[in-house]
Amino acid sequence: MIRTFCLLVGLCVIPAYQAIPNTWPQFRGPDARGVLDGANLPDTWSAAENVAWQADIPGRGWSSPVVSGGLVFLTSVVSQSAVEEPKKGLYFGGDRPDAPDVVHQWKVYALDLATGALRWERQVHEGKPGTPRHLKNSYASETPVTDGERLYVYFGNLGVYCFDFEGNAVWEKAMPPVKTQYNWGTAASPVLHDGRLYIQNDNEDASYLLALDAKTGAEAWRVAREEGSNWSTPYIWTNSQRTELVTLGSDAVRSYDLAGELLWSLRGMSSITIATPYAEGDLLYFSSGYVGDRKARPIYAVRAGASGDISLAEGETANEWIAWSQPMAAPYNPTTLVYQGRLYVLYDRGLVSCYDAKTGAPLYEGEKLPRGSGYTTSPWAADGKIFCLSEDGVTHVLQAGDQFTLLHSNPLQDDDMGMATPALLPGRLLLRTSARLYAIGG
Questions:
Q1: How far apart are CA 424 and CA 18, in angstroms?
Q2: CA–CA separation, 71 vs 22, rounded Å?
Q3: Strand 159-164 relative to strand 150-155, pairing
Q4: Contact of 310 with 322, CB cutoff 8 Å
Q5: Three-state secondary structure string covering 308-319
Q6: Buried b (16+ CB within 10 A) or exposed e, 265-281
Q7: Pairing, β 308-309 against β 262-266
Q8: Model pLDDT for residues 28-59, shown as the tens digit of each residue
Q9: Is the pTM of this model over 0.90?
Q10: What is the largest CA-CA distance in the chain?
Q11: Whole-number Å distance between alpha carbons of 277 and 107
């Protein structure tokens, strides 16, 4: 059972949300940018200060919370007996060749946004996992997506499940398990656009890009990908020229039209790709920064309207379609952040760099945060501030600007390992840790 407490009851006035009020529909929110301005979000908190409510979440899941219709949706997978706990920090040795020989339960939770109370809980599967995973991964790492009427939940190597907001099952589609590189498991979240659900599954068996009818779950189209394992969520980019589906891969970045036809591609990524692409207007930003690569950890800014192979020639950092690139500046796990004309980079070992978002010119590089065993969560921005959550559960708050300025460090409880990107709402931050979900502010 989910337990809630620390509820603050009362009325408050909050600014109107820029799109749909009290909605955070997908990983990194509207347009996948991780930004919400004018929301009066708090910038100081602890486990006991500035917390409206908190809810204990059973099991393990690194999926982000999504919000719509007064509900907070989460996924988790609960083991029926003890399993190996994740370790904090960037380290090698987390590969596990065998799946746990323990029964697990794959679950979906809906919590009340105002109080944190459990509205409903649904179990979609029970059994022993069919594939291994990295020690730090989970079997519930993919973030759900919602269109305001239905919730679409994707558990990699298991299936896709659609629910209405009352918790009624609408449809489901089984997904056969596939092998991933080093048996790390899956993590890429689904995206939703104009009545279709898109899933990118890059693996060691047969990678593909899949479009499903959101109403029925029927397959609209499937495109085979010449790609190995990656963990990047695709992105729907609506620019001045067209709408396209951008997918990152280690072999190539590929952008498709909404019928699955290839528009353009780019080679020159690192050997493992995790971050999510996103855009500001007609500039698309993406990165690939595997820490073991010594020659290619690039960040790119690509202009709208590209076609064909737009890869850089040797020694180039820009061309007709690539506005700029930084060949060795990308983080490994976190996605970069564009805010107020600057691109912020949070590195896994707790360094922060900042570049001009239009030109790629460095503003500052390699500034160190004061504490944190590692950084997996993508940074977010609100009201002139940048937020960086460590795996220790400490959120560091920076002043947005051309210089590195640390404002606050906000710790939680000792067992609050942080690897999920939060949801941002007017007056409220929903921050998930390994143990619980916090509603901060309000």
A1: 12
A2: 9
A3: antiparallel
A4: yes
A5: EECCCCCCCCCC
A6: bbebbbebbbbbbbbbe
A7: parallel
A8: 999 999 999 998 999 999 999 999 999 999 99
A9: yes
A10: 61
A11: 28
